[in-house]
Amino acid sequence: MGLRLKFNLVLLAVFLAGFLVTGYVSHRLLQKNAREAVLHNAGLMMETALAIRSYTVNQVKPHLEMQLMRGFLPQTVPAYAATETMNALRTKYPEFAYKEATLNPTNPRDRATDWEADLVHKFRNDPGTTQISGERDTPTGRSLYITRPIQIKDPACLACHTTPSAAPATMIKLYGEANGFGWKLNEIIGAQVVSVPMSLPISDAYHAFYTFMISLFGVFVVIFIVLNVMLSWMIIRPITKMSHTADQVSTGKFEIAEFAETGKDEISVLASSFNRMRRSLEKAMKMIES
């Protein structure tokens, strides 16, 4: 096995190990960053919905008190305002979703699906839990969700949700009296659920991963070629020439020119030593012949 082949085998083994380790670490890191980006977007949507709810309660509803005395306005309900705003956002970004999933909602569109109801029951069974996040498959692909409990903390919220007789007649006319009643103070009635698609961030992560790995492979190819050229020029060629000269000298052919003794590297030192040995051998041969 030649020196070049041994060198290349070691180089390939080192590169392959580094390539695999780098690929594993970079893949995990990019996937983690993609998930964190999705969580950030979901958290931003959640905070936006909370801000809309707060704005509705503090700045919209107080100015409509007189109108509310004459009739029920769903636009003054924080959940309605947040849901309508987020639905407007979905016209441009249909993969994103926001829902105030409720077990017993006034508005039928807010009724929790099976998986949303499971989340609500988790909050009910563990009141100390303030947020749950996870992933699920949807018709548009993998989606990440975060959810927070909806808890009745303001007694004023019960004015429309204790009994049908206590609720505004206009609300009963709009939604009926079959749902949205029987709520209690401090009861967890539902969950705010934000769903954000993972397909685009994950796709970007894979694209970045493949680009990085291809670039890494390209860098290795360049390094491999450069090292082989340097190996051939600085080591293989001088050693091959020395080997050929040594073979000639061993048969008594001293007319071959000596090696150039330039530089201070190991090859130059070896060339200098070889020249001295050659001269000594030549002198010894002449002494024997005389």
Order of helices and strands: HHHEHEEHEHH
What CATH architecture of the largest domain would you give? 2-Layer Sandwich
The shape is rod-shaped
Number of structural domains: 2
Q: State the CATH topology of the largest domain.
A: Beta-Lactamase
Q: How much strand content do the residues show?
A: 5-15%
The number of distinct β-strands equals 4
Strands ordered across the widest β-sheet = 1-4-3-2
Quote the average pLDDT.
83
Q: Level of helix content?
A: 55-70%
Radius of gyration: 39 Å
Judged by helices, strands and strand pairing, the structural class is alpha+beta
CATH class value of the largest domain: Alpha Beta
**What is the subunit arrangement here?**
single chain
Total number of helical segments? 7
Which residues sit in consecutive blocks of at least 5 with pLDDT less than 50? none
How many angstroms separate the termini? 43 Å
Summarize the biggest pleated sheet.
4 strands, antiparallel
Q: Explain this structure to me?
A:
The chain is of the alpha+beta class. The protein has two domains: 3-14 and 206-289, Helicase, Ruva Protein, domain 3; 24-199, Beta-Lactamase (2-Layer Sandwich). It is built from seven helices and four strands, in the order αααβαββαβαα. It has helices at 3-60, 65-70, 78-90, 114-125, 169-175, 199-250, 266-289; strands spanning 97-102, 132-138, 141-151, 188-197. α1 runs antiparallel to α6 (199-250). It is rod-shaped. The two termini are 43 Å apart.
Task: Write the topology of this structure.
Blueprint: H1 3-60, H2 65-70, H3 78-90, E1 97-102, H4 114-125, E2 132-138, E3 141-151, H5 169-175, E4 188-197, H6 199-250, H7 266-289
Antiparallel strand pairs: 1-4, 2-3, 3-4
